[in-house]
Design brief:
Elements: H1 3-7, H2 16-46, E1 53-55, E2 62-67, E3 74-77, E4 80-83, E5 89-90, E6 92-94
Antiparallel strand pairs: 1-2, 2-6, 3-4, 4-5
Length: 102
């Protein structure tokens, strides 16, 4: 028996079309799993590095966000952020007018 027959032996049935369908479903599932893992790694390690800019509701400028405690750059999370200087959870404020961005 060839290697491919041994590899796909559990997928083969009496009908020729269903074994081929199972093979396509498994390959498509592996592609989606690879894309999901790639997107997770990108968001976790690469997308977090660049600073994000926000529109300020009060002064109207597009500004970088800073922490309320130290006025240092922040690592943003949902609903707030972590100060890069002191490491505490803090609110995100505008760098120009010092008002909350959220």
């Amino acid at each position: 028996m060839s290697v491919l027959n041994l590899l796909f032996y559990p997928l083969q049935t009496e009908n020729e079309g269903t074994g081929l369908l199972c093979t396509y479903i498994i390959i498509l599932g592996l592609i989606f799993l690879g894309l999901y893992v790639g997107l997770y790694v990108f968001n976790r390690y690469f997308a977090d590095k660049s600073p994000k800019q926000h529109p300020c509701k009060y002064c109207g400028h597009i500004v970088n966000s800073v922490s309320e405690c130290c006025h240092a750059p922040v690592r943003e999370k949902f609903g707030g952020g972590k100060c890069m200087k002191c490491g505490k959870e803090t609110r995100i404020i505008c760098i120009k007018c010092k008002r909350s961005l959220h």
